[in-house]
Design goal:
Elements: H1 5-11, E1 13-14, E2 17-21, E3 29-33, E4 39-52, E5 58-62, E6 69-73, E7 80-86, E8 92-93, E9 100-104, E10 110-121
Antiparallel strand pairs: 1-10, 2-10, 3-9, 4-7, 4-8, 4-10, 5-6, 5-9
Length: 139
């Protein structure tokens, strides 16, 4: 049985977000969705509702030294709603532990960005130091 996008977000931690972008403000946002060690963000969809068009670009990527780019809004898209990423119900994974960042080339666009996704455990977790049991052998 396959799971729906909503099922994945209910099963794990829903990290869906909405951001208002104002035309006079650069849309950059470091750690828009914060990563967690030993967990991976899966991005299912990114939509951009544009009210004011601009000749600037907006990139959605993780924050690794060589970023994984998952979506890109090219310059001068026009106005309306644009599906920038459809990662399917399961979503597209970022690098484990990485944040999802928004990187704009400049201010200009005005509208609303919506991201749907979830974060799930994918790595080894350190649960702390566990004391060893000692057996005492007596006669």
């Amino acid at each position: 049985m396959s799971r729906s996008a909503e099922d994945w977000r209910r099963l794990y931690r829903d990290v869906s977000k909405t951001k208002t972008v104002l035309s006079g403000v650069d849309p950059d946002e470091d750690s828009w969705v914060a990563g967690v060690a030993a967990e991976t963000i899966f991005v299912q969809r990114i939509t951009f509702q544009i009210q004011t068009d601009a000749a600037v670009t907006v990139t959605f990527q993780d924050d690794e030294s060589t970023p994984v780019i998952i979506a890109f809004a090219k310059a001068s898209l026009g106005t309306g709603q644009f599906l920038l990423l459809d990662g399917g119900d399961e979503g597209i994974p970022l690098t484990e532990g990485a944040d999802l960042d928004i990187v704009g080339s400049a201010a200009g666009y005005e509208g609303m960005i919506k991201m749907e996704g979830y974060r799930k455990p994918t790595g080894v977790r350190n649960l702390g130091t566990v004391g060893a049991r000692q057996a005492i052998v007596g006669n």
